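Subject: Sanity check before I submit

Could someone independently write out the structure tokens for this chain? I want to compare against mine line by line before I put it in a report. The sequence has 358 residues.
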Amino acid sequence: MALWRGSAYAGFLALAVGCVFLLEPELPGSALRSLWSSLCLGPAPAPPGPVSPEGRLAAAWDALIVRPVRRWRRVAVGVNACVDVVLSGVKLLQALGLSPGNGKDHSVLHSRNDLEEAFIHFMGKGAAAERFFSDKETFHDIAQVASEFPGAQHYVGGNAALIGQKFAANSDLKQVFPAVTSLGLNEQELLFLTQSASGPHSSLSSWNGVPDVGMVSDILFWILKEHGRSKSRASDLTRIHFHTLVYHILATVDGHWANQLAAVAAGARVAGTQACATETIDTSRVSLRAPQEFMTSHSEAGSRIVLNPNKPVVEWHREGISFHFTPVLVCKDPIRTVGLGDAISAEGLFYSEVHPHY
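---
Independent answer below. Compare away.
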């Protein structure tokens, strides 16, 4: 009798579960798992999740990125705009009649040959570069060749215009925001800054490939300690968002900002989506290229970090300054990278929360 009763219960359960699927096909998986476990028939198998490091990292970002409790009321955008022309650098050099030669850095470009040498130099290092072109007529000729090159793309450019576009896409706030509280920097700008003031690692002439995390952390710490807000200093600078191709770091003076874990993740996420021109991260089109291990400092005894895609935001602290690190899912075949740094900075600010006393 007991055996028959158990069989009847099992048959009734199968019928009931079948009805649930027929009547409520969209019933959350968590509800079905609760029903299953409450009937003491053992745990139901969990739905399959992302198995690649890129998939696990993107899923972890989605769980971490939440909007701040206190939203921005005013946004500042400076008056600055231009037109960015996007095309292959190699094809531009060919159109200018230049052939690949020896690379050489130039602090100021005076001629087409200077452009060719600087391009080869930085391309070989895989590093970004910004240089002033002193000859107005030559620069105009180069810009015209680039603009008229078949397939060249034209976009709105200029930091202020691009940041304004990103804020406008997220909200209807158009008013002025005091930008002196926060900086957005790439690896080239960070190195310029420490070189100009003889800061940490200023003897580096350029980054050799991916910027070392510990060195970047040392420079960010120095900027905020020497030029950021403190009890003895009236500066308003309390936040720096550093971004490079494969990772981001947010450095903040403690007590002034919140939601920075979500902010750094949001900034990294938009780098992957905008470069690939997708609404969400497409894991088949991105790759995880951040260092799997790194030191948090080289100026002092830093910690050794091992990257875990399931917990993609790493946090550490140093003398009243907090650091939030996250890798970037790099687009394998980028469609648009112009203005990407500005989009990153704007997205990070959009998800940041400033404390009321600030």
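---
OP: Matches mine. For the report I'm noting this point. The longest strand covers residues 247-253.
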